[in-house]
Automatic annotation (TrEMBL):
Domain Bacterial sugar transferase: residue ranges: 7-184
Residues covered by the HpcH/HpaI aldolase/citrate lyase domain: 213-352
Domain of life where this protein originates: Bacteria
Residues that span the membrane, as ranges: 12-33
Annotated Gene3D superfamilies: Phosphoenolpyruvate-binding domains
Organism: Mobilisporobacter senegalensis
UniProt GO MF annotations: metal ion binding; phosphotransferase activity, for other substituted phosphate groups
Matches recorded under Pfam families: Bac_transf (PF02397), HpcH_HpaI (PF03328)
Keywords: Membrane, Metal-binding, Transferase, Transmembrane, Transmembrane helix
Family in the record: Belongs to the bacterial sugar transferase family.
Protein name in the entry: Lipopolysaccharide/colanic/teichoic acid biosynthesis glycosyltransferase
InterPro entries (alphabetical): Aldolase/citrate-lyase_domain (IPR005000), Bact_transf (IPR003362), Pyrv/PenolPyrv_kinase-like_dom (IPR015813), Pyrv_kinase-like_dom_sf (IPR040442)
Length: 482
C-alpha cells in the first residue's frame, strides 16, 4: 500500500488521540480566550485545500472581533492581538483546533500550508505548476514552514511545497515533524508578523514561434497571434545529423533578419545561429546589427561554449540556449551557472538522436525533459521544448503536449512544419486561414485548461507517457524489420 494512503490512517488515529489527550488544554485555552475578550473561542477561516477546494480551517481566536478588517496579518505592536493571543501565537497553540480539520479529512499533519482563498492569489491565478502543491492535503506544518516560512517569497514557498509533493514519504514527514518541534521549542519564526513576501504569479500563455524567412508569411503569422518569428541560420553539421530524417534545413540568410525586421510591428525575431565556429563573432555581430531580438545557440556541449557565446552577445540582445546534446544535459548544472542566459529550449530532435531513441517525444516519457525543466524553473529561466502541430493532428496530438507544457511550466513552443507547411500550401490566403484557425484553436484550448487542477495534468501525463512508449516500440520494431 502506497504511503499516501497509509498517511491518511495515521492522520485519523493521531488526530483523534491528540483531541482526547489535549482536551484539558483545549478547555483551559477556551476559558482564557473567553475571559479576556468577547466573541467566539474558535476562529473560522476559509482556506484553499486539496485540488483548490475551499474548506473552513479552525484556530483558537487570538485577535479581537473584527480585526480582519484591518488585514489578516499581525503588525508590530498590533493592539488587535489579545494577551492570550500573543502567547498562543508564539507557541503555535492557536493551531491545535486543526486537529479537527485533520480528523475530518480537510488537512493532514504534514503538507503545504493551506493559503487564504484570495491571498497570495485566487486559485485560478496560480500557474499550473504552482497548483501541484494542491494535489495533496494541506498540513499544519510543511517543508516551506521549516525552511523560512514567512520570510520567503511566495514563489519560493510554492517551489518548496512542490518539492514536498515530489518527495513525499514517511521519512520525509518525520524529518519535517522533528524540525517543526525544534522550531516550536525555540519559538523560532512562530509569529505571523506583517504580510508574507510575495511576487505576482503570471497568467500563463505560450509564446508561439514559427520558422520562416518569407515576408508575407511572417506578417500573416504575426497578425494571427504568433509571438516570435524564427530565422534559422544553422547549417553547420545539421545535414550530417538529420539528413536521414524528414526534417527541413532552412537555408536562411543573415540578410533575412533585416528583411523580416522591416515588416514586423509586434512580433520579435529569434535567430538560431550556427554552433560555435571560427566566424561566430562576425555572424552574431551582423544579425544583431540587422535587428535580431533573441539569439539562439544550438548544439553546444560545454560551459565554455556557453560562456563564449554569452560574451559575444555582450548583453546587446536576449540569449536562448538550445539544449540538444547528451553532453549539454550532463553538464547542465555548470551551464546554468553562467550568467546572462535569458531563455532555455530543449531540442528534442537532435537530443533523441543523441540518445539513440526512435521517437523524439520519448524524452517526455523517460523523465529527461522534466528533469531539465525542474532545473530551468529553479533558476527562474523561461523555457520551452519541442514543437506542435495543429490540435488533433500529428503522431502525438498537440493537446497532450500542450497540457504537458502547462504541467511543467513551459512558456514557449515552436509551431512545427506540420502546423502549416508553406511548401505545400501555395496560396497566401489559405496559409492565412490555417494560421488564424490554428492559433485560435490553441488559445481557446489554453483558456479551457487554465481552470483545471493539477490532477487533470497528472492524468494527461500518464496517458501521454503510455502513448509515447507505444509509438517508440512501434518505430523500434519497424527499424528492426528494415
Amino acid at each position: 500500500m502506497e504511503y499516501k494512503r497509509i498517511k491518511r490512517y495515521f492522520d485519523i488515529i493521531f488526530s483523534l488521540l491528540g483531541l482526547v489527550i489535549l482536551l484539558p488544554l483545549f478547555v483551559v485555552i477556551s476559558i482564557a480566550v473567553r475571559l479576556e475578550s468577547k466573541g467566539p473561542i474558535i476562529y473560522k477561516q476559509p482556506r484553499l485545500g486539496l485540488n483548490g477546494r475551499v474548506f473552513t480551517m479552525y484556530k483558537f481566536r487570538s485577535m479581537i472581533i473584527g480585526a480582519e478588517k484591518e488585514g489578516v496579518y499581525e503588525k508590530k505592536g498590533d493592539n488587535r492581538v489579545t494577551n492570550v493571543g500573543k502567547f498562543i501565537r508564539l507557541t503555535s497553540i492557536d493551531e491545535l483546533p486543526q486537529l479537527i480539520n485533520i480528523f475530518k479529512g480537510d488537512m493532514s499533519f504534514i503538507g503545504p500550508r493551506p493559503p487564504l482563498t484570495y491571498h497570495p492569489w485566487k486559485f485560478n491565478e496560480y500557474t499550473i505548476m504552482q497548483r501541484k502543491r494542491f494535489s495533496v492535503l494541506p498540513g499544519i506544518t510543511g517543508w516551506a514552514q521549516v525552511n523560512g516560512r514567512k520570510d520567503l517569497d511566495w514563489n519560493i514557498r510554492i517551489e518548496l511545497d512542490n518539492e514536498y509533493v515530489n518527495k513525499i514519504s514517511f521519512l520525509f514527514d518525520i524529518k519535517i515533524l522533528l524540525l517543526t518541534l525544534i522550531k516550536g521549542l525555540t519559538m523560532s519564526n512562530n509569529l505571523n508578523i506583517e504580510e508574507t513576501v510575495k511576487s505576482k504569479a503570471e497568467k500563463m500563455s505560450l509564446k508561439l514561434m514559427y520558422i520562416t524567412n518569407d515576408e508575407a508569411i511572417a506578417k500573416i503569422a504575426e497578425n494571427s497571434g504568433v509571438d516570435w518569428i524564427f530565422i534559422d541560420l544553422e547549417i553547420i553539421g545539421k545535414e550530417k545529423r538529420q539528413g536521414h530524417l524528414d526534417t527541413v534545413i532552412s537555408h536562411h540568410e543573415r540578410e533575412d533578419v533585416k528583411k523580416i525586421k522591416n515588416i514586423l510591428s509586434q512580433a520579435k525575431i529569434i535567430v538560431r545561429v550556427n554552433p560555435i565556429h571560427p566566424d561566430s563573432e562576425n555572424e552574431i555581430n551582423q544579425i544583431i546589427e540587422y535587428g535580431a531580438d533573441i539569439i539562439m545557440l544550438p548544439y553546444f556541449k560545454t560551459q565554455k561554449e556557453v560562456e563564449y557565446f554569452i560574451r559575444l552577445v555582450g548583453g546587446r540582445v536576449k540569449t536562448c540556449l538550445l539544449c540538444e546534446t547528451p553532453e549539454a544535459v550532463e553538464n547542465i548544472d555548470s551551464i546554468l551557472s553562467v550568467s546572462g542566459i535569458d531563455y532555455m529550449y530543449i531540442g528534442l530532435n537532435d537530443l533523441h538522436l543523441g540518445y539513440k531513441m526512435n521517437f523524439m517525444f520519448y524524452l517526455l516519457a523517460d523523465g529527461t525533459v522534466e528533469s531539465l525543466c525542474d532545473k530551468f524553473r529553479a533558476k527562474g529561466i523561461p523555457f520551452g521544448f519541442g514543437g506542435i502541430a495543429r490540435l488533433k493532428h500529428g503522431t502525438l496530438p498537440a493537446e497532450y503536449i500542450i497540457r504537458e507544457f502547462y504541467r511543467l511550466g513551459s512558456s514557449m513552443v515552436i509551431l512545427s512544419r506540420s502546423f502549416c507547411n508553406a511548401n505545400e500550401i501555395l496560396q497566401y490566403d489559405m496559409i492565412e486561414k490555417v494560421f488564424k484557425e490554428g492559433v485560435l484553436e490553441i488559445r481557446t484550448f489554453e483558456e479551457k485548461i487554465l481552470t483545471k487542477d493539477y490532477s487533470y495534468f497528472a492524468k494527461n501525463q500518464r496517458i501521454l507517457k503510455k502513448k509515447v512508449i507505444q509509438i517508440e516500440n512501434i518505430l523500434k520494431r519497424q527499424k528492426e524489420i528494415i
